[in-house]
Amino acid sequence: MGLFTKILNLLKSNANFSEIKNNLLLADIDLDTINYIEKELKNKKELKDILKSLIIPWSFIPDKNKKNIFLIIGVNGSGKTTLISKISKYYKDKGYNILVSGADTFRAAAIDQLKHWCEKNKIDFISNIQGADPASVIFDSMTKFLNSNYNILIIDTAGRLQNKEELNQQLKKIDKVIRKKIDEYNKEKYNLPDNKNSIDKKTDSNTIESINYKKILVIDANIGKNSIQQAEIFNNIIGIDSFSITKLDSTAKGGSIYNICKKLNLSLSYVSFGEKIENIITPENPDFIEFLINKI
Predict the structure, then answer these.
(1) In Å, what is the CA distance from 288 to each residue of 142, 164, 285?
(2) What is the pTM of this model?
(3) What is residue 57's DSSP assignment?
(4) Rounded to 5°, angle at Cα 277 from 107 and 115
(5) How many Cβ atoms are within 10 Å of 55's Cβ, its own excluded?
(6) 166 phi/psi in degrees, rounded to 5
(7) pLDDT at position 205, please?
C-alpha cells in the first residue's frame, strides 16, 4: 500500500494527525513539508491536490532544431549511468540523434556500462581511458557534438562527495569547458566579434542562443533526508536546472521529492523506477504526477 492510500484511509477514519505525521516521516518527508500538508488539510484541501501542488514538473522539452546538452551530476552510486541509458533510449525512440559522453573517468565500470548500453541501442558514445581528465573528455565530446548533426549530448560525470573541494573544482572546470565551447559555437554561428559574449544575457537576447544547456541532478530514492543535503551542495557548486529520481521501486520511500521541490524550488524531470531500459517516466507523460503520488 502506497503512502497516499495509507494517509487517505487514515483521513477517512478521522485519525489523529499524529498518525498521519508518522506515516509522512516514514516516507522521508521532512517536518517543514509535513507542517505545510497539515495546514492545507486544515484548510479543507484534498490530500491529492496538496501532494500534486508540491511537485514541480520540469517543463523543458528538447528542441530538435537546436543543440541540447544535458550535464548529469550526482554522487557515485546514485544511478546516473543507468538513468543516462534510459534517457538516451527514450529520446532516440522519439527521433532525436544522441551522443553520450562518458566523462566519469574515475570509474572504469561507468565507462564500460554506458558503452555497453549505447552499443546495444545503437547510440553514439565517446569517452577516454580511466583516469583521464574529465574536462578533456568533455572538450572532445563538445567538439564532436557541435560539428555533427546531433540534437542531444548527454554527459556522465563522477560525483565523489566525500571530497567536496575536489568535486567543486572538477564540476566548475567542466562547466567552464562547456560554456566556452557554447560561446565559440555561437560566435561563429552568428558572426559575433571576439569581444562579444554570446551566452551573456546582458548583451544578447535569448534568441541568439542556439544551444540549450541543462544541468540535471540525480537523486537515489533510497537515501531519504540526505537527498536535500545533496541537492543543496550540487546546487551551490554548479546550479541545477532540475533533478531526477532513481530506484523508485517498491522498497523506496521517495518522499524526498516533495522536500526538494518545496525547499529548493527545483523541478523534477526524469523518474527511473525499474531495471528495464523502458522503466522511465517524464513530465511529458500526462500521468506523471499521478504516477508519483501512487508510487510513493
Answers:
(1) 32, 33, 5
(2) 0.90
(3) B
(4) 35
(5) 19
(6) -65, -45
(7) 37
Residue of 84, 59, 27, 34 lying closest to 221 (CA atoms): 27
What is the amino acid identity at position 165?
E
* pLDDT (0 to 100) of residue 167: 85
Residue type, 292: L
Query: Which residues in 177-277 belong to E strands, given as ranges?
Result: 211-220, 242-246, 267-272
pLDDT one-digit tens code per residue, 181-236? 999 998 887 776 666 565 554 334 344 567 999 999 999 998 887 899 999 999 99
Residue 255 pLDDT:
86
- What is the spatial distance between Cα 196 and Cα 210, in angstroms, rounded to a whole number? 15
The distance of Cα 259 from the centroid of its chain, to the nearest Å, equals 15
Q: Tell me the pLDDT of the chain averaged across its residues.
A: 88
Query: How many Cβ atoms sit within 10 Å of the Cβ of residue 198?
Result: 20
For residues 125 and 224, give the distance between their C-alpha atoms in angstroms, rounded to a whole number.
33
Task: Copy the grid coordinates of residue 125.
Answer: 558514445
Contacting residues for 237 by C-beta, under 8 A, at least 6 apart = 167, 168, 171, 172
- The yes-or-no verdict on residue 114 having pLDDT over 70 is yes
- For residue 94 the three cell numbers come to 522519439
Better-scored residue on pLDDT, 78 or 189: 78
The length of the chain, given as a count of residues: 296
The cell numbers describing 20, all together, are 498521519
Q: 237-240: list long-range contacts, CB under 8 Å, 24+ apart.
A: 237/167, 237/168, 237/171, 237/172, 238/71, 238/73, 238/171, 238/172, 238/175, 239/215, 240/73, 240/215, 240/216, 240/266
